[in-house]
Every structure is written in structure tokens, then in C-alpha cells.
Amino acid sequence: MEQQIITYQQIKHNPEITALMERGNDMLGVLGYTEHSKKHACKVASGAGDILSALGHNKRVCELARIAGYMHDIGNCVNRVDHAHSGALLAFQILRGLEMLPDEVACVVSAIGQHDEKTGTAVDPISAAVILADKSDVRRNRVRNRVKARFDKHDRVNYAAIAADLNVRMEKKVIQLEIELDEDICSILDYFEIFLQRMLMCKRAAEVLGLKFRMNANGHKMC
Q: Domain of life here (predicted)?
């Protein structure tokens, strides 16, 4: 069997992956979760690749980060619970079927399996980049519930996010998340309390990349 160099664009336009992603997003919508569509997948893919590119990693490593970032939530089509692990198993089958190089399959699968804050942690640059890109995707248009009185805590945080930007500052060895929040909807303290576990995961991911994680909210340094 001849092994193939699989590209992000191939993954992005793969009908099997698209079907899994769309089904997972639909299921999460029924269950009241925020958007986990192709838009989120593309944003995480782009962010993960950009982080590693800024740090000087080679193009193939950046491409693998994009692939892992794009596929990271396909396990939602099975169940939200343990979706990182089921997603990793689905990705293994798909990528093996595409005849991707075995060591590259392993890198992508481990990054997917480690991305959830309840069970995972950064173990290498690819998993670290995916975690940082995923956890920093906070934006108003991820909220599907249009009745504010029915917002859960994640709806409130995302709806309050006017802007969120993640940047690598190499001169200071820092990766910094800048968030602008509407504090009439969600206070800075509430944001930090709700997303504390995610921010701790980002801190660990930054350390794996040789960086410090910093977060500013409305101009205030939070960590």
C-alpha cells in the first residue's frame, strides 16, 4: 500500500468528514450547545496552523495541526460525552483509509484525543496548538439560543464576547488572548470562573510550546 501525503484541503472537502461534522453540530444544537460547525472547525484549523507557523515549525507540522484542528470535533456525532476519544477513533479510521503516513495519523489522532479539558492535556506542539485555537474561539455568533432569558453559562460567555484575538508575541515568549466583553451580559470575573479549566489547559499548552499564556479582558490583565 502506497502511503499518501494528505493535505488540509483534502480533509476540508472530504464528504465523510463533512457528514460527521454536520451531524454532530445538528445533534449539539438539539441538546442546546453552541455552534460546532464547519466555521468553528476552520477557525481552529487556521489558528492552530498559524500558531505553529509563528513559532517556526516546518510547513508539514503546521499542515498536520490544521488537519487535527479541522477534525477535532467530529466525535460529537457519536455523543458529546467523551467526544474527543470517539473523534480520535473516527479520525484514525478515516485517515488510515486515505492512506496517510502512519506517524502522521498518530500525531493527528493524539491531538484530537487530547483536546477536551475534562480528559486531555497538551502533549506535543500539534495538540498544544489545537487546544489554544479551540479554547480561544469565543464569539457571539456561536450562540444558537436567541432567547437571552434561557442562556446557560456558555451562551452568556460567548454572547458577551464582542471580540477575541489570540496572538503569539515571540519577543516576550508569550501567547496572548485579548477579549472584549460586554459586561452587561457577562462580567470578567464570571468569564474567568466559567472558563477557568479551559484557561488552565491553555496555560499548560503554552508551556509545551515554550511560551507563557496571558489573557487580557477589556484591557485588564487576568493571567
A: Bacteria
pLDDT for 22-43, tens place per residue? Answer: 999 999 999 999 999 999 999 9
Give the β-pairing of 212-217 and 174-181.
parallel
Q: Parallel, antiparallel, or unpaired for β 161-169 and 174-181?
A: antiparallel
pLDDT in tens, 136-150: 999 999 999 888 888
Q: How many CB atoms lie within 10 A of CB 132?
A: 27
Burial call 61-71: b when 16+ CB within 10 Å, e when fewer = bbbbbbbbbbb
Which whole number is the average pLDDT over 113-141? 97
Higher pLDDT, 190 or 23: 23
CA–CA gap between residue 115 and residue 99 (Å, rounded)? 24
Comparing C-alpha atoms, which of 143, 110, 103, 145 is closest to residue 126? 110
> What span, in angstroms and rounded, lies between the C-alpha atoms of 115 and 12?
19
Report DSSP state, residue 89. H
In CATH, the number for domain 8-221 is 1.10.3210
- Closest by CA position to 8, among listed 177, 137, 126, 124: 126
Calculate helix-pair angle for 38-54, 59-71, nearest 10 degrees.
160
Q: Is the pTM of this model over 0.90?
A: yes
Task: Name the nearest CA neighbour of 74 among 102, 49, 111, 122.
Answer: 111
